[in-house]
Amino acid sequence: MRQKNALIPTLRTVSEAEMISHQLMLRAGFIRQLAAGIYTYLPLGYRVLNKVEKIVREEMDRIGAQELLLPALHPAELWQETGRWDAYGPELFKVKDRHDRDFAAGPTHEEVITDLLRGEINTYKKLPMSLYQIQTKFRDEKRPRSGLLRGREFLMKDAYSFHADRDSLDQTYEDMYQAYKNIFTRVGLDFRAVEADAGAIGGKGTHEFMVLSDAGEDTIAMCGACDYAANIEMAEVVGVADAADKTEAPAHEKVATPEKRTIEEVAAYLQVDKEQLVKSLLFIVDGEPVLVLVRGDHEVNDVKVKNLLEGTVCELADEETVRRVAGVPSGFVGPVGLKEKVKILADQAVMQLNDMIVGANEVDAHLMHVQAGRDFSVDQVGDLRNIQEGDACPRCGGAIHFKRGIEVGHVFKLGTRYSEAMSARFLDANGKEQPFIMGCYGIGISRTVASIIEQHHDENGIIWPVAVAPFTVHLIAVNMKNEEQSRVAEDLYAELKKAGVEVLFDDRLERAGVKFKDADLLGIPVRVTVGAKAGEGLVEIKLRRSGESQELAVDNLLNELPAWIKRADQ
């Protein structure tokens, strides 16, 4: 491609972007924003996108998945069958046609693929079957301010598998898991596969593929002694010791805590450690109020609350609901005397406290010397808090530390959630109807592109890995007005194209400094510069990542180039 007439509108600065990937893709002319979270891919950006797609297709095809293309517009009836029309929440784009029928712009395709298979496959003899697509998805994100890392319209690979038994699902899950590792390795990412929650999609077994980056929205709990890694939503807390003091606490008593509502305020006022206090937080799980108790120095994990109750939607109650259920504002709610009004859950660490301080269900008051079992009872006890740095690893007992991560892939064992809800069945070997056992496997294609930049850049611009770079070689003629340089550069451009090398030829009538600055910004792995020594038959070759450079004879460039390309990622 000749750069003179190419649509590569580089910018020196941008003001509206927060994430480095967003900044660099705008500055390098890879994308332009149409509306919040909605982007146009310019030619270079689209080439990178296609490179990632190609790698994904190769790995999907390698494990026998078949590519298809499903509709982006979904009739509401399908989503109503599974209950997700209402449960999915405000991220679901809903539209009406001219006949006032409801549709959704697809954020994911479990309902659509299940509807397809229930009409086409009716026997175990056609199973297992894995199908995938690469398609634009739509989610009305609340804060689409991170460029391609969180858009309202984005490109995704989603795959679905259908099985007659769990063993078959397990095998495909392992195949997909390995394929994902291959994909993210090939595109040059430093990533971890972590245990995760399935969220609105559902299912029990699930892993997220996280790119390690400070730009990530997710917190990953990792062990320093083994390979354990989990999203903080799912990281298991273990090693809770029995209470050291088994003696009964004194009778509880009410103490005034005027205008002291937070754990920090109450602890300071009563001159006690936060560990002695208990937070009492009201959640609404599938429409029902639930009081959750955690130690004062811990944070409630709403995903664990939802999973313990096998719920679908779990949200912290608003202030109006707290006052209606408990009769007092947040900060003064406690479990004593509240059992008749609400289900009570307690984190396992709370049950180890023999002498605790809780809200008195009275404004400006708390109860001291409260003991579980004597002063209040709970309905269920479980692991309901976020793991903390320094906590014991649930696998080996080593110390947990945190990293930030960007989710680029997610694999689920859906089981029969969708097939049961949608009556998608097949005849087994005995002629009996059985629901399909399903798996679901997604990769954010556009998010992967942004994640690559988050890990591969410097102060001058992007540094593309060879496998996904828009071009392999950036050929620069320092001065196109110089007849010798122009001739050598044109000849090299023709030879590189003939040899099948992807080359961007900077033939612009720009200053050398502008060309080199743009080259660093675009991040193409190998730069070949035709400059002052062109008349001597010499050009400079330089690697974008390492900065390694050397003068080479023009006649020897094509022979030397493969070795330089091979070193470009090192």
UniProtKB/TrEMBL annotation:
UniProt key word ATP-binding: yes
Main location: cytoplasm
Subcellular location: Cytoplasm
Keyword ATP-binding in annotation: yes
Domain named Aminoacyl-transfer RNA synthetases class-II family profile: residues: 37-465
Catalyzed reactions: tRNA(Pro) + L-proline + ATP = L-prolyl-tRNA(Pro) + AMP + diphosphate
Stored Pfam families: HGTP_anticodon, tRNA-synt_2b, tRNA_edit
Coiled-coil stretches noted in the UniProt entry, renumbered to this chain: none
HAMAP family given in the database record: Pro_tRNA_synth_type1
Quaternary state and interactors: Homodimer.
Family of this protein: Belongs to the class-II aminoacyl-tRNA synthetase family. ProS type 1 subfamily.
Record protein name field: Proline--tRNA ligase
Species per Swiss-Prot/TrEMBL record: Laceyella putida
Lineage, top ranks: Bacteria, Bacillati, Bacillota, Bacilli, Bacillales
